[in-house]
Backbone:
């Protein structure tokens, strides 16, 4: 049996852990640059707060109902996620971290009372991290997703634990489960299925295999069999290597100064380079992206990107920064008020699978040692404590706007809570 465990309203719940005065009260979290609402707890959602809408469109509603609003605090959320996963690892035979707030857990074979096991999972995660979770248990990953959804949707009855353990419970769960909410079936596929009379997950499982394979490929056929209780997807105990690494963030204010934009780009390249080395990959291509604020109708609009093929795949931040700056020179145009710059590293390969270039200069072992020292220093003393000169020291002029950010309670000593 497999349990899917996910944290209820993860970002909002992380904030409530350190603000017990907010328990039972509406809480919302804003996206990068405080642009829109990306998370809200149950109390906030019942007020009609919409996910993904610009923050100012929700602000009147939030202020009138006393909603506590936070800027996103990803260092805090990332650390709390790791604590949840380490806790779950003590409760299962194997663990697949599926996302920042959810994981598949292989239920130990000796567990006979699955409902009691689910509640034990909830109690331990709450005791060790302070975060509430929902637990869905079934024979396959797709059915565990369904069970988890039902655990949260009917939480007053299920107390956040739902088990699909036999044919009767499987049939009843799928009969009442909308097909558009099935894991892997999005809006467009649901619309196609609706034209063939498929409204529920149970309807989907009754479709002929040949039709499913033709219309939805072998992926759809695997999903159907998973919903029938036939395991098709094993736990991924080792996360697959990313095929692309990148970041694109809005500035706290629009920028016209190419120098400031170049510094922000170099800062983001360093972030990506560190992730690249941590994964043990080299990048063969680099893409730089630049855009103005499309929501400011009075401003002249411009958006562009350029892709650079690197002479030899590399993970060297200095080399990546040099090519990124050249890419920015190609697409930068004076006279515009820019809102965002981004960089993506693609064509990722392992070090042993690199095609060398006869005319390229190898940065050498000393540069690889420099990168190792930079990563070690930043890991120990904090992000970007050691940086390239290209990243500069003017981050206050372009960094994200976070007017409502909470302290990093668990990752910065100077922000650890004090009790008096």
Residues:
């Amino acid at each position: 049996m497999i349990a899917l465990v996910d944290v209820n309203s993860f970002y909002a719940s992380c904030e409530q852990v350190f603000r017990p005065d907010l328990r039972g009260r509406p809480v919302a979290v804003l996206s990068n640059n405080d642009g829109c609402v990306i998370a809200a707890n149950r109390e906030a959602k019942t007020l009609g707060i919409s996910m993904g809408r610009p923050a100012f469109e929700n602000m009147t509603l939030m202020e009138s109902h006393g909603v506590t609003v936070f800027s996103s605090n990803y260092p805090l959320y990332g650390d709390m996620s790791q604590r949840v996963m380490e806790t779950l690892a003590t409760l299962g035979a194997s663990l697949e971290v599926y996302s920042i707030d959810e994981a598949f857990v292989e239920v130990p074979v000796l567990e006979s009372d699955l409902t009691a096991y689910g509640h034990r999972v909830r109690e331990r995660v709450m005791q060790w991290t302070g975060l509430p979770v929902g637990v869905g248990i079934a024979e396959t990953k797709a059915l565990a997703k369904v069970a988890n959804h039902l655990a949260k949707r009917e939480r007053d009855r299920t107390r956040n634990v739902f088990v699909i353990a036999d044919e009767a419970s499987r049939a009843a769960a799928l009969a009442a489960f909308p097909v558009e909410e099935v894991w892997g079936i999005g809006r467009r596929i649901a619309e196609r299925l609706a034209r063939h009379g498929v409204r529920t997950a149970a309807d989907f499982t009754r479709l002929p295999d040949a039709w499913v394979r033709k219309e939805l490929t072998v992926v759809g056929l695997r999903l159907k069999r998973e919903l029938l209780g036939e395991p098709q997807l094993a736990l991924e105990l080792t996360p697959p290597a990313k095929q692309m690494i990148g970041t694109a963030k809005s500035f706290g204010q629009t920028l016209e100064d190419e120098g400031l934009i170049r510094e922000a780009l170099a800062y983001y390249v360093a972030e990506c380079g560190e992730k690249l080395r941590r994964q043990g990959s080299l990048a063969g291509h680099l893409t730089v992206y630049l855009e103005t604020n499309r929501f400011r109708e009075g401003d002249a609009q411009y958006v562009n990107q350029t892709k650079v093929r690197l002479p030899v795949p590399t993970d060297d931040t200095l080399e990546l920064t040099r090519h990124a700056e050249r890419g920015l020179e190609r697409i930068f145009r004076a006279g515009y008020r820019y809102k965002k710059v981004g960089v993506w590293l693609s064509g990722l390969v392992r070090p042993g699978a690199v095609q060398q270039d006869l005319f390229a200069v190898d940065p050498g072992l000393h540069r690889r040692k420099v990168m190792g020292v930079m990563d070690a220093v930043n890991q120990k003393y904090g992000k970007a404590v050691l940086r390239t000169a290209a990243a500069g020291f003017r981050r206050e002029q372009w960094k994200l706007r976070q007017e409502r950010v909470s302290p990093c309670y668990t990752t910065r000593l100077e922000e650890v809570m004090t009790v008096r």
